[in-house]
What does this fold into?
Amino acid sequence: MKSRLRVLRAERQWSQAELAQRVDVSRQTVNAIETGKYDPSLPLAFKLARLFGIPIEDVFDPDGEAESR
It folds into this structure.
């Protein structure tokens, strides 16, 4: 699953550690999601979307097209 997490985080000038703290996960979890090595649970995916104030589809794309938006 592709995500725009890295772009969204960079737009806000947050480090991986800062984002991790905001959603109560480890920095390693954020890194794994950003690199495509880990797909977040639904509750975590929704928490991330809410944090950025956008629909979940604008953060994650199961078809792998999220980076191009």
Summary: The beta strands are 2-3, 60-61.
